[in-house]
Amino acid sequence: MAHIRSHNIEDDERKRDERYTLMTQAPVKKLVLKMSGPTIVSMLVTSLYNIIDAAFVGHISTEAAAAVGVSFAYMTFINAFGFFFGHGSGNFISQALGAKNYSDAEKMAATGFLSPFILGAITGILGLIFITPLSKAIGATPDILSLSNEYLFFILIGTPFMMSALALNSQLRLQGNANYAMIGIISGAVLNIILDSIFILDMGMGVKGASLATFISQITSWLILLTGTFRSGNVHIRLKNFSPNFAHYKKILDGGLPSLCRQALACVATICLNHSAAIYALDGNEASTIAAFSIVSRCMMFAFSIVLGIGQGFQPICGFNYGAKLYGRVRESYTFTMSIMTLFLLISGTLGYIFAPHIISFFRSEDPELIAIGSRVLRWQCIAFPLIGVSTSTNMLLQTIRKTLPATILSMCRQGIFFLPILYIAPLFLGLKGVEMTQAIADVMTFLLAIPIAIGVYRKLKIES
Fold first, then answer.
1. Whole-prediction pTM value?
2. For site-directed labelling of 455, which of 50, 129, 271, 306 has its Cα 20 to 30 A away?
């Protein structure tokens, strides 16, 4: 027995050393592309599930599409804390592995996994008790309230699994095992698409079927990701390493605060957008207007998933090399990541602008008002889309090297510091058009702020190297 355990420890150490060598010595550009591949696939498949899920629901009715769109605000809340614990613990794990501090990495992995599970369980129970007030708070109007409650039901039950699965995915990815993280995410997404077809089309369960499909698929992803932590070479999750103390939460806060602020503000922004869409809807078409904004959000998320995949491939490289004090490699990977992000965004933004009506009609061709509003919103966002690469890559760099304050400020701009005031002011003068162009204006302003921050951090890395 002792011989087997010794062999397993030696195998873990060997694989960790191999991963360290890969991260700190392989050509940077090829390494970014290699690490980005699995994360891009993961993000694309997840976004594709969101697209197909929206299409299934959209063809039930405009009210169903609006109800799921409103409920997306709660999903954003789950993402906020899942990414907070995942990025906070994962960034620490990445740098600890770069410095070869394996014991600290294991304690952080357990704390970063179990904490969101406990928080998710408490949140889900409270949500089930107060489900109708929750639906109203996130923007459900009277005509879609019952459908919103139906969709939220299974999502609330699955909250602890969804929240901790996001944390597990980030931990696996940031320690350099993007392939297994990809398997966990893709398995759940593919299962969700299959179950959507069965529950919605074959069994006629409607919105409740979409919710149940998401619940089952998220638990499946959770199980696969948890199993992956016990594979050789990965940081293992052990209950005995759970250390819910101030020091560990301080480290999670340092690495995860930008993600928490970004996602929490995205949740607030989604709720405010739902309410604004209902207030400024033309001729009382609240459901069509809310559904249009929701569909555009999913479309932009699909394109943005590739950008996030590139950035998530960059982050473990950044973390390992920053922990190993190889600042020249950090700088090279950062500039290359920013360049390919911007190129992709330019191409996708152009295509999205040209084919906007066709894209929106894919989800709900039966509603001309929805198509008209959605096309205008999509085109506004596509105009500013190429600018997001600079702010996204810079934010990911700052977060990974634990520059918490500037990373947090920059992460709060796109859907918070700039977005919320514009969402309030622009419609006062422009009505619904002001709501439609809010995100584009916020993206331009975030870009202008990101430029001097990017120049400053680049110069500092150059001096340190």
1. 0.76
2. 306
